[in-house]
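Batch 3, record 17
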Amino acid sequence: MAREARTEIQKAEKSGVPTVPEQTWPGPVYSPSVDIFENDNSLTVLADMPGVKAQDLKIDLRESVLTLTARVTPLDGPNESDVLREYRSGTFFRQFTLSETIDQANIDAKLADGVLRLELPKVEKARPRQITVKTN
Amino acid sequence: MLVRRVGPSRPTFDSPFADFDEVRREMLRLLDTVASDTSGEVGAGVFPPMNITQDDDNFYLRAEVAGIKPNELFLSAVRNRVSLAGKREIQREHEGASYHRKERAEGTFNRTVTLPTEINPERVDARYADGILTLTLPKAEEAKPRQITVRT
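Prediction for the assembled complex:
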């Protein structure tokens, strides 16, 4: 693991999204980088969203489409002028279609250090039950 | 175009390709117009992307370093140079996790930027919030702009 970590980070740019349905606010739109993995119990989404505060993040799941939207307010003060500009702040937007049935009531979202961790538990499958026959 | 063609402005000894040159210039001009449009596509091609702004007293350096703990960031400042190094590790998930997407990068980074003027390295302030690192770099006294009063 230590060896892997020594490699330099290659990806640097936020990838812009050219077409976003019905955008009603100004500014660029970016697609956050994500890791998605699942195990038997749940599906986990990790998304890099630097600058996003919890109250600005909207997570929407309907008809098996998961939508992440977050607006970032730039931190620049009013009297500051640009010296170097390598990134812009805008809206993070990304949609996923989920194939599994998700237990909507137990979705858990955590936002820490600009990374969202979304746990989507799968609906519990019907478990085989033993039925005891009672006799009088 | 047609109007300009019959006009007398062009000398007759023009090469037959002069029209192409004209079209080429026009195309480049149009491309420039499109390119300078603020489409939001900026970047340096290195991690982490950073913005530097200034006001009269300070430079402000902001870097997008999502998912990096503040104690994994190494900062240094000397004269007019600021270095930012660190490592981004993505923790291994438990066995049995099958990945659908793996886009988040991990690894080390090390960047040095040179500021237009010298700073006071003693008074640099670093803050980290929501995956964004903000450095406030006070300009050295001799580099600050001064108001000059004109005496009469």
